Amino acid sequence: MAIATFGAGCFWGVEAAFRQIEGVTSTAVGYAGGTTSNPTYEQVCGGQTGHAEVVRVEYDPDTVSLEDLLEAFWNCHDPTQVNRQGPDVGTQYRTAIFTHDDEQKVAAEASKATLEASGKYRQPIATEIAPAPEFWMAEDYHQQYFEKMSGGQRVLHRLFTGS
Q1: What pTM was computed for the model?
Q2: Is the CATH code 3.30.565.10 the one for domain 2-161?
């Protein structure tokens, strides 16, 4: 198994997107890239810790490639937004790829360069690519949030089909 870590705004929807991918064996939402040890959701949302909301994805590289995960990452948010996604504003919602080894760094940088060259976006890609810092697991109620909430399957269906 391998691990990849992505920040793309509110971690609830991002986690749900990655959980739909064959070869993803588990996900966890949490916080990374800040200065406080074992931060709480309230601390991170207060904007004082420097952490991003992230999803740690465990996957089987024999079933799904890192490139496929990177494609899903680019498609599940607007990577041109700086410190925001939709109505969510703050550094905790920044776009980031936290790499776990040199191979991931090279793949992330190549993927970003390809997207920039594609002309898909008018604005520059704001996604930070950095070595994976310590990952702090978010509180239990955030884990697989959409799957736990009442009507969560309807939300997931709308999220991924638009209907």
Answers
A1: 0.89
A2: no
Domain ranges within the chain, ordered by starting residue = 2-161
d(CA 40, CA 67): 31
What sign for the dihedral angle of Cα 138, 141, 146, 148? Answer: positive
The first and second tokens of residue 104, run together, are 């991931």
pLDDT (tens digit, 9 = 90+) per residue, 86-145? 899 999 999 999 999 999 999 999 999 999 999 999 999 999 999 999 999 998 888 988
Residue 54: closest CA among 7, 90, 102: 7
At 155 the three-state DSSP class reads helix
Nearest 10 degrees: CA dihedral of 37, 2, 4, 116?
150
By three-state DSSP, how is residue 74 classified? helix
Which residues are tagged catalytic? 10
Question: Is the C-alpha dihedral spanning 114, 31, 144, 154 positive or negative?
Answer: negative
